């Protein structure tokens, strides 16, 4: 029948949410696919985080005046939190890219060695026929 829901560590959830915030041009569905998480799961985490952030706002944050364009400015704590989340997401991306690069280097070395051995084999076969 139905499978049991997977449990994800809190730091994974926070990194996923940071990716959503750091990539405004990407959809939640695209990010869910990249992370291998069910769309509805990630969507639920995001909605819950939005509600929690609204409830967590301090009286100081609520009393802020809108800026020139009508937009509110984020507090230092919010900015720090946002930047730390973005930094964590970027570090995770760097780790992933470094791992991808290492895999590609190994694959390239393997394919090069295989191609060289095939060339040597053909040369030996050709030389044997020539005798």
Give an account of the 3D structure.
- The protein has about 130 residues and is an all-alpha fold.
- The chain has helices at about 10-20, 30-35, 40-55, 60, 75-130.
- Helix 1 packs across helix 5 (about 75-130).
- The longest helix is centred in the C-terminal third of the chain and has 55 residues, at about 75-130.
- The N and C termini lie far apart (about 70 Å).
Topology of helices and strands:
Blueprint lengths: L9 H13 L5 H8 L3 H18 L2 H4 L13 H55 L1
Helix pairs in contact: 1-3, 1-5
Structure summarized in a few sentences:
The chain has 131 residues and is mostly helical. It has helices spanning 10-22, 28-35, 39-56, 59-62, 76-130.
Count of alpha and pi helical runs: 5
| Secondary-structure element string | HHHHH
Largest sheet: none
Please state the structural category. mainly alpha
Helix content percent band: over 70%
Task: Report the β-strand fraction as a percent range.
Answer: under 5%
Poorly predicted runs are 61-71
Radius of gyration: 25 Å
Shape: elongated
Task: List how many beta strands DSSP finds.
Answer: 0
Question: Which labels suit this protein?
Answer:
single chain, 131 residues, mainly alpha, 75% helix, 0% strand
